[in-house]
Structures are given as C-alpha cells and as structure tokens.
Design goal:
This protein has about 150 residues and is mainly alpha-helical. The chain is about 75% helix and about 0% strand. It is built from 5 helices and no strands. The longest helix is centred in the last third of the chain and has 31 residues. The chain is elongated.
Length: about 150
C-alpha cells in the first residue's frame, strides 16, 4: 500500500467519523424534541454520553467483560433523559444502539486488543461517570429553563 493510499484511507476514515458526529448532532435534536436543527448543550451531552456506552459494550462483547456494566450505564442514561418531558425514549434507545453499530460493526471474529482493554478500564473508572454527570447536569439545566 502506497503512502497516497494510506492518506486516502485516513482521510476516508476521518470523513466517515465526521459524518457520524454530524448525523448525531442533527438527529439528537429530533430525538430530544428540540426546535433547533443544530446541536445545543443537551444534544452534545447526549452524544457524549453515548461514547462510554459504546466502549463498555465493546469491552463486554469483544473482551468478555461483564455485560451488566453497559446495561446499567444505558439504563442510567435513559433514566436521566426520562426526566425531560416529551422525550422519545424509544428513539433515544435506538440512537444509542446505532452509535454502537457505527463505532463497532460486528465482524465474524471480534478482537480484544490491549488498547480496547485500556480504554474500557479508563471509561469504567472515570469517563462513564463524568459523561452521565454532564448529561444529568444538562438535563437539570433544561428542566430549570436555563
């Protein structure tokens, strides 16, 4: 593979990830029944909270980590969103699963790497709780009308 091919692959990967983030920023307002078609603080918190879920689920499926971690995380996330009136929790749940599918397309052979194990542990230790705290804080601000 030439350097040009590698650059093209890297550029394609970057554009694919940018498209996913843009899609999430446009879809999240619809899920959260928000009027603007751009990402506000709640949309951002929702998208940010999906990342730890993806890591925890990948750890469970690819590295035989406990399934309960990602299930409990998602339950807490949906519970926080459920405090808001008029939120379509079914659509939010689907979008969370789509985030996993986009990030970790299922292959015939899931692979557990040291990098995934490290990311899983960091997520479990700090990132997951921070993302949920930010989501809860943002939901609280929305409820107070800030």
């Amino acid at each position: 593979m030439s350097i040009s091919d590698q650059d093209d692959n890297a550029r394609s990967t970057f554009l694919d990830k940018a498209a996913v983030l843009l899609r999430a920023a446009v879809i999240a307002p619809m899920l959260l029944n928000s009027a603007p078609a751009f990402a506000d603080a709640l949309d951002t918190a929702f998208v940010n909270a999906m990342t730890p879920y993806v890591v925890l689920k990948r750890g469970a499926l690819e590295c035989d980590k406990p399934v309960g971690e990602y299930i409990a995380y998602k339950s807490r996330m949906i519970g926080i969103l459920g405090r808001l009136p008029n939120v379509d929790l079914i659509a939010a749940d689907r979008e969370i699963e789509r985030a996993f599918e986009r990030e970790a397309p299922m292959s015939a052979r899931p692979t557990c790497s040291d990098a995934l194990l490290e990311r899983y542990q960091l997520t479990l230790d700090t990132s997951a709780e921070a993302a949920l705290d930010y989501l809860a804080e943002t939901v609280g601000q929305r409820l107070r009308g800030n």
